[in-house]
Structure of Chromosome segregation ATPase:
Amino acid sequence: MMARSGVYKSEVRKARDALIAQGKHPSIDAVRAEMGNTGSKTTIHRYLRELAEEEGEGHTVAVSEAIQDLVDRLAARLHEEAETRISELQAQHEGKLQEKETLLAQQRAEIEGLSTQLQRTEVTLNAEKHDLAVARLALAGANTTNERFTQQVNDLNDRLRDNEAHRQSLEDKHRHAREALEHFRESAKAQREQENSRHEHQVQQLQVELRQVRDALTGKNEEIIQLNRQNGRLSADVAEAGRKVHKLEAMVRQLRQEIEPLRALPQQLTEIQQQRDAGNAQIGGLLNSLEGARQGLQEQQARHHALELELATANGKLVALQSASVPDLEPATRNHGGT
C-alpha cells in the first residue's frame, strides 16, 4: 500500500495510545507502522512531542525514552536527508535521461540527414558517371576527327610535294628552253654578224671590183654578171636567214605559250599553302578541344574521386553513429523502466 503524503495529529494520538495499551513503546517507527507506514517521521515526531507537552509528560521522560527519542529524531532527520538526496538523484537522473533522449533525437535527425545526403551523393555520383561516359564518347569522337584531319593533312602534304616536284620539273623545262633560246639567239646573232661581215667584205670587194670595172668596163662584163649572181646568192642567204629568224621567233612564241600556264603555279602553290595553314589551324583547334576534353575528363575523375571519398566518410560516420547510439539506448531504457 502506498503511503499518504500527510497525517493528522489525532491519528498519531490514536496510534500512540494503541501501542501503550498493547504494552509497547510508542516510538516513531512503531507509531508509523501502527498507522500503516503512512506519514513523515518528522511529522510523527513533531506530533508526539506536542502530545507529550500537552499531557505534561515532558519532565517525566526516562533516559532510555530520551535516547530513543533522540534516535527517532536522528532517524527522521536521516530519512528526510535520504528522501531529499533521493529526490535530487531522481531529478538528476530524469535530467540525464532527458539529455539522453534529446541527444538520441539529434542523432536520429543527423542519421536521417546523412541518409538524405547519402542519397543525394549517390544521385550526383550517378550523374557524374553519366557525364564521364559522355565525356569519353566525346573524346573518342575527337580522336576520330583528329585522325581524319591528320590523314587529310598528310594527303595535302603529299599533294604539295607532288605539286612542288611538278613545279620544279616545269621550272627545269623552262630553264632549259630559256637556255636553248638564248643559245639559239647567240648562234643566230653570231651567224648574222658573220653574214653581215662577209657581206660587207663582199660589198667592199665589189666596190673595189666596180671601180676596177669602171676602169675597164668593156672587159669586165662577165665579171659583172658573176658579181650579180653572187649578189643573188647573198640575197637568198639573207632571205634564208630571215626565214630562220621567223622560225625561231615562232618557237619563242610557242615556248612563251607553254610557259604561260606555269605562271599560275605560284598562285596555286599559295592557295595550297593557305589550305595547309587552314588545316593546321583546324588541327590546332581540334587539339585544343581535345586538351579541353581531357582536362574536363580529369576534373570529372577528380570530382568522382572526391564524391567517393565523401560517400565513404558519410558511410563511416553513419556506421559510427549507429554503433554509438545502440549502447546508449539500452541503459536509457533500463533506467526509465527502473524509475
